[in-house]
Amino acid sequence: MIRNLSRALISCVLALLAGVAIAAVSRGDHGAPPWRGSLEECRSPALAHVHDPNRLELLRACATFTGRVKEVHFVPAFDDMRITIVPTAEMRPFLPDANRGVLVADVIATDQAAVTAPPVGSQVTVSGAWVHDKATKTVMLLPAYRIVVDDVSSATIRGHSTENHGPSAPKTLQLSVSTAPRIAVGGEIRATIRARWSMFGALTPASQVRLFTEMTTPNDNGVRWKAVETDTRGIANLRLVAIQVPARYELTVYAAPSGLPVSVRTPVKVAKR
Predict the structure, then answer these.
(1) Fold of 30-151
(2) Distances from the Cα of 28 to the Cα of 24, 99, 100, 155, 258, angstroms
(3) Residue range 212-235: average pLDDT?
(4) I want to staple 137 with a disulfide (CB 3.0 to 4.6 A). Which of 34, 98, 121, 163 is the partner?
């Protein structure tokens, strides 16, 4: 009887391992590239400030990928900077077929003050969280928060000439946000965000400033995300339906003009009717 139980247990274990292997193959799990650099630079939690993290499967909290930049573009819906990278030969085995030979490194809004967009054609080393997108079946670096340009010999450098008339005037961005402190479940969260430039003590409207908004729980778990842009008056109107469970939340607005991060937050209470 004990022998039969042992055989049954071994069969169950083998079946479980086979199921895990099948699941890994079906999602295109080819492993993850290792982390390079100091472990202190490895972010924890890995998916902090990433919009809708439930759409992702975290395969490795910290990974480093190398390749040549094919494209850089912004996604206005969430103010993400997406960098498409053609891998080096040693990186190719980590990409499943669904990736079609390229990797997307996604720099989220809260990191764009510290991460500069690399030139198209440059050779780069990118580090961040290695994730599997459940919808597209692809792997990505999201968030990608460290980019080192290794070689620009094939890069396409775009720019324009300017006359040098001395140092630019000191200018800082000021943000403010206002909303009703209490919203009923199913109601509309209406937030007004004002952005102004401060220079020599004078305030002027900051138009066309990209803003990333995040609604979080008291323990900093994100529940809602949206990107907006200020109008000519320096104002952006945010509208969200309060579909969260009744609780106290915080609405945070981020901006990173000229590489200088600015943020402001306000409490929001979602209550029963």
Answers:
(1) OB fold (Dihydrolipoamide Acetyltransferase, E2P) (2.40.50)
(2) 6, 9, 12, 31, 39
(3) 92
(4) 98
